[in-house]
């Protein structure tokens, strides 16, 4: 048996705000959505593939101190794509961790940008190489584990 991650579903507190956030940063397309007050959702993806579903059925912010999702990580082909995402993250004023693109660990070439969506869900956009020009923000542990 083999496994591959399918789409990711997130509870959000404000569908319009979250949809716009993910469209701007990731360049997703809207595959479908509902504006019924009791059933608001949006299906987002790229190149005909569903990637993310947003469900407006929560309040408040993601609780990082409780069991559950730690972060979502999205791989892009190269470090230039990570820097383009970082520019958009800064432009829209999203919470950015580690002040920009950093390696996954000391001496690692892979790395990315770590940030939060409007509901506090932690996100990462990374490339397999090209991030080693800065020191890792944490020593003795993976960067993606502590932000």
TrEMBL record:
* Keyword Ligase included in the entry's annotation: no
Annotated VOC domain ranges read: 4-128
For this chain, one GO molecular function annotation is: metal ion binding
Q: Which CDD domains match?
A: VOC
Which superkingdom is the protein from?
A: Bacteria
Q: What PROSITE patterns does this protein map onto?
A: GLYOXALASE_I_1, VOC
Q: Which key words tag this protein in UniProt?
A: Dioxygenase, Lyase, Metal-binding, Oxidoreductase
Record InterPro entries:
Fosfomycin_Res_Enzymes (IPR051332), Glyas_Bleomycin-R_OHBP_Dase (IPR029068), Glyas_Fos-R_dOase_dom (IPR004360), Glyoxalase_1_CS (IPR018146), VOC_core (IPR037523)
Q: What is this protein called?
A: Catechol 2,3-dioxygenase-like lactoylglutathione lyase family enzyme
State the species of origin.
Streptosporangium album
């Amino acid at each position: 048996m083999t496994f591959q991650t399918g789409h990711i579903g997130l509870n959000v507190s404000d569908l319009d705000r979250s949809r716009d956030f993910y469209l701007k940063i990731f360049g997703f397309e809207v595959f479908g959505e509902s504006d019924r007050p009791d059933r608001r959702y949006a299906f987002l993806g790229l190149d005909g593939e569903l990637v993310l579903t947003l469900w407006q059925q929560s309040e408040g912010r993601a609780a990082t101190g409780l069991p559950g999702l730690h972060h979502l990580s999205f791989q892009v082909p190269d470090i230039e794509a990570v820097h383009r995402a970082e520019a958009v993250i800064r432009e829209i004023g999203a919470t950015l961790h580690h002040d920009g693109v950093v390696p996954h660990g000391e001496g690692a070439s892979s790395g990315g940008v770590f940030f939060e969506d409007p509901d506090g869900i932690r996100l990462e956009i990374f490339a397999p190489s090209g991030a080693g020009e800065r020191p890792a923000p944490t020593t003795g542990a993976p960067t993606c584990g502590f932000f």
